[in-house]
Amino acid sequence: MNKMRDLSVMILVMGLIGLLALIVVGEFIAAIEAEANVDPAVIGLLEMSITGTIGVIGGYISGRGQP
What we know:
Blueprint: H1 2-34, H2 40-63
Helix pairs in contact: 1-2
């Protein structure tokens, strides 16, 4: 059962990181094509998402030792 929990957290985190990468790359490509600056909202989204991902991983690791 523990391996299933490990796998589900791994899929959750990898999916979130993949989605963030897609959003950031798309926004940077759009900014380059428009010759404009990157929208600060995208940078804010990236900062909050990284913080959330660290929170998910930290919560999983801290609760991992409990049955």
